[in-house]
Amino acid sequence: MKQDLNIEIFDTTLRDGTQTPGISLSVGDKLKIAQVLDDLGVTYIEGGWPGSNPKDVEFFRLSKRLKLKNAQIVAFGSTRKKFINAKDDTNLLKIVDSGVKVACIFGKTWTLHVKKALETTLEENLNMIFDSITFLRNKKIKVIYDAEHFFDGYKEDKDYSLKCLEQSFLAQADCLVLCDTNGGCLPSEIQKIVQEVNIFFSKKYPSKKIKLGIHAHNDSGCAVANSIVAVEEGCVHVQGTINGLGERCGNANLCSIIPLLELKKNIKILPEGYLKKLTEVSREVDEITNSVPNERQPFVGMNAFAHKGGIHASAVSKITKTYEHINPKLVGNERKILISELAGKSNILFKKYGLSINLNDENIAKIIKVVKQKEYEGYSYENAEGSFIVLVNKIIDSYKQFFKVISFRVITEYSQSKQLTTEATIRIEINDKEEHVVAEGDGPVNALDTALRKALEKYYPQLKDVKLTDFKVRVINPVLGTAAKVRVNIESMDKKGSWTTVGISENIIEASWEALVDAIEYKLLQSIK
Questions:
Q1: In the chain, what are the domain boundaries?
Q2: Which of 72, 17, 12, 8 is nearest to 46 (CA)?
Q3: What is the homologous superfamily of the domain 404-528 according to CATH?
Q4: For residue 207, which phi and psi values (nearest 5 degrees)?
Q5: How far is 5 from 528, CA to CA, in rounded Å?
Q6: Which range, 85-99, 300-314, 320-334, is most confident?
Q7: φ and ψ at 415, to 5 degrees?
Q8: What gap in Å lies between CA 106 and CA 132, rounded to an integer?
Q9: 324-338 mean pLDDT
Q10: Do 500 and 474 form a contact (C-beta atoms < 8 A)?
Q11: Does the pTM of the predicted model rise above 0.70?
């Protein structure tokens, strides 16, 4: 039975997350992510700082057109500048002008920052906190107060840090968020300090209920753990980002926090059934931000439930919980059994992919022997299921040769009139007929792909549905410099799905050609199974 504690998820991917080095989002990107986050079911989406740049001003204007079902858009900002009236503060006025119903403003709670960064008095900083929240509250805006550097400030001067929190409480902030801004705290420190904050308010204001939140950074690798501990100690508002995006080492990763609270602490976080969307949301945000996915990311990573060792695969095939802490489907992920030099019988049986092939003990032994030798040469079938199936059919003599490659040639030429052009010439044999085809392309791989299809499609029209969707190259033994082997992975897809193939060679063209041929053969094998 899920506990109904009404935990708020405050997503700051569009604000704190955009401070990730190498990430720059357009207004359109931010609107797309906002819609994705709403579809996940978070409580708040922090859209940016309307007082800092025109892009965020435009986002708040256009965000009103979004048809959000679950989340509220939040504007971010700081407390007023020192020694001025809140009503004259440009940043606060920008928040009001943005038209939001919820604002998140941060204020200093560490004496070091008050004295050295703001260069003001401790008393004036308290006034800045109270005045700013009161001003926004008078504008009918709900205020979430981020107590910046709270934990560091508390450890240095807890009395002053508590006074800062108290000012936000007296100004009627909806939530007081305790921030580990430098990300240097350990879970035991978070636990102790949150406990003491609760004791302080319960003693001083026994008839009033305080609402606390947590905002953790990951500089010590503890952001997720710190967030969970804070919830255990009574925080009901959790801030973080999808995939842990954020400056330096990132923010607390909501893709871990949400399933941990739902599945480990049995606390209802998202609307019923929405947790299954988590993996899809993680990958959509990676796609929009043009980030390289972390394949080993807990819960949502491509390898979060991948099993490579033969013993592991054997155990999981019998009882999944032997090597899986949850059912991957709960978070929208899936189990993967990888083929490698560590493969055993269970890995091979799991990887049948529905093909009608005889995988008796003798055949499995042959496959394992060849796979281990191929991996020694540099091949990797962990994410190249297309090449693996082609290889298996060849090993157990169930392979049908759809065409025979006689020769191929690729020429790349530069001229002032045409600039750079690439031409591929291939000769292949199909049903005792030789096809000699020439085709141009945007590069060597595209030219070879175009020529191969040109030769084959009149014999195998089902290939018209196939398209190349991704191309990756990795150097296997870089110490050899330009003579090193390269591994090429090509991803292809048709109307039914996608598959990946692999090629290895010292020559990148040859490696690419091998992966291309496997991609075509895999499609043809699938069409006759």
A1: 8-289, 306-395, 404-528
A2: 12
A3: Alpha-isopropylmalate synthase LeuA, regulatory domain (3.30.160.270)
A4: -95, -5
A5: 55
A6: 85-99
A7: -145, 155
A8: 10
A9: 86
A10: no
A11: yes
